[in-house]
Amino acid sequence: MSESGRAASRTAVLVCQGRAVADGKAAPGRFADPVAVRLLRIAERTSVDEVRGSTPPEGWQARTAYERVRACAEVVVPRTVAIDDALGARVTGQLVILGAGLDTRAWRLPGLAQTDVWEVDHPASQQDKRARLGEAVEAVRGPDEGDLPVGELPTIARSVRFTPVDFAVDDLGMALDAARHDPSAPTTWLWEGVVPYLTRDEVRATVAALAARTVPGSALVVNYQAPSVKAAAGMLLTRVLGGSVTSGEPWRSLWRPQQMAALLAEHGLRVVSDDTLLALAHSLGSPARRRASLQSGRVAVAERH
Ligand SMILES: C[S@@+](CC[C@H](N)C(=O)[O-])C[C@H]1O[C@@H](n2cnc3c(N)ncnc32)[C@H](O)[C@@H]1O
């Protein structure tokens, strides 16, 4: 639990587990995340190993965890590939990852070698990630690795600057100023798996704040959730039953593609592509048993010209 009274994100761990499951298994040649498993604690690796081995555990609770991780792996593969491709096509000197969670790109994408990365996240989640990075190094540090910086996995990106921000209360622009982000230079913005957890007003405020630091040559890659019967039912259930069904991370906003495009256009960002994860899964030939989730999850790319 952080000073703000909020716990580190559990959904960030789930997504990391999904990537660890898929590494070396799904979409060969297109998807790989060997760093994900290193950010997981021992207990969190159990479900990962079970899903990778197709050995579902006994018992209701363990089986639920297994199914959640398995479902997540299916969704994160097309999402990660689409985003990695979009970033690879739009490399700038600055990448700001909003709601970074246990994102591993700064540690695994060779294309970021000349890029400074800002990992923006809720303070509680960020504190947790930094502890995990330290533990990962402790776990792998061997006699020949004595010169690794203490508490850090070696990054591929030119630099990683941890920037704590609660989108609900903090000023994103001020936080990025303090972290030496240059608003006059092109920036690639990544916003993956975060929009549903913010209210519509928080999403609007975040877009306004990032757009104010977005010069021509910049781009935004945003993953969001469009309305669906399943999503609407889930949100209703949360309202009725409270936070217990969502581990304290309820979905708060869904956006139709036209609404997202209109919001971005208001701030001078023109959507150049916006695909469902289902279409992306089909193009990769990856499994699509979670049709509803894949159909409502989207990855859009917007550019400032
Ligand atoms: C599902 S995780 C996604 C993490 C990462 N982007 C990924 O896709 O692996 C959601 C992330 O949103 C962040 N988040 C949710 N609400 C937030 C808020 N109000 N301010 C800052 N970050 C927030 C959480 O801390 C968490 O890291």
Key features?
single chain, 305 residues, alpha/beta, Rossmann fold, seven-stranded mixed β-sheet, 14% strand, globular, binds S-adenosylmethionine
Overview of the molecule:
The protein has one domain: Vaccinia Virus protein VP39 (Rossmann fold). The chain has eleven helices and seven strands. The chain has helices spanning 10-22, 42-52, 60-88, 105-108, 123-140, 172-178, 200-211, 229-241, 257-266, 277-284, 291-296; strands at residues 94-98, 116-121, 159-164, 188-191, 219-225, 270-276, 297-303. A seven-stranded mixed beta sheet has the order 3-2-1-4-5-7-6, with helices on both faces. Helix 2 (42-52) crosses helix 3 (60-88). It is globular, with a radius of gyration of 19 Å. Mean pLDDT is 91; it is low at 145-151. S-adenosylmethionine (SAM) binds next to helix 1.
